[in-house]
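Question (not urgent): is this output format expected?
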Amino acid sequence: MNEDLPVSDGPPEVIAPARRRHARQYNPLPRILVLVTASVLLTAAFWAGFTFQSTYANAGGEPAEVIVATWMRDNNMGPLVAKLEDVYYTYVSTPDVGGTPTVSADITAEDNAGLDPEDLQPSDSPSAMSSAVPAVVPSAIPSPIVTPVVEHLNPPPPITSPVPNPEPQEGLWQPVGSRVAGLPAMYVARVRADNVHTSYYASVLWIDTSLTKAMFIPGFEEPGGPNPFNGALPKELWPIVLANFNGAFRLEDSMGGYYYGGEMVKPLVDGKASTVVYKDGSIKVGKWGRDLQMSDEIQAVRQNLNLIVDKGVSKVSSATDNVIWGATTDKESLAWRAAIGQLADGSIIYVGSPFLSADGLANTLVGAGAQEAMVLDMNTWWTAGFYFRHKKDGTPLCRKLDPSIAEGCDRFLYPYKRDSFQFLANAPLSP
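Got this back:
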């Protein structure tokens, strides 16, 4: 044995060959996707902010939910808005069943609000009527008649309530607003629209068309076309304004056309419900092509859906037939709804109230004597009807047809984005 050899304390050490590390291949796709997504979101946010700012700037006091809904409709999201509103009316804004109204059917206190005793005394000064014709676009403004008229219409019979035990004054016509040549030109009645949701009134305004002249004011956004007044009633006419209320749907949702001041903004459709305002201030509601035709005497034609009342008969097929009369509600949803109707004697009625089904709206119109009626705009804020008393100096004092109408009682006197129907006295006013 060779003692010079080193002695190992264990098995020989094995040195493994160094592993060769493989370089990872770089994949840029995830990074590109993140950058593209971020760019799209940033662009969308910028676009949304820019377009929303424009909508907000023209809001005119509208509540936040109305501004958002308007912005969505302006940007092709109407179907989504309709679905959201359906959910809102189905699960959030739900009407009570049973009960009695908290609003009085007696209009007296509302009609007299804000008047001083001296305002109720006859004035020796001449009426503001004689200087009420502005110089701008005279063909759009009916010429007032300064000679007091004698002929007038009488309000229809009381509206029969569907509730077995009506409230005091329910369904009875009560004179409101400033008098024309000493005669009431407007009456209001409140009545339940059905016998289930008995906590709510439908408010109905009746207008004597022999004592008034109608005027159509296009909004500065809707329904498009000529806009001579920037959506406002000329201030020269404020001393003789008696009533005003909302127009129809946005033109793109109306399923009809629109004509104003010699311009066919959108072709009129035969068979559609139409409200025609003539250059002399007369007004007619009917079916285009059957009751109404184009003539040189027409100032405006506003169409909206089909007639909801035709020849004195409701055209709503069932109590849940809502979506035909406004795609923003479905099935059994009850909403703010409005309509304009015409009686056999030519007088006009307007209904604008909350928690109405299409069936309840039509039945109220029929109960008030409407022979033909056209649906107007709907939902909170867009449904709005007002009438006026005047102080001695001609200042109009606005009254809401329904006390729960969203703010802006005088909104149709000032520049407004949507169209409105206005009714002016055709003879001197009196207390």
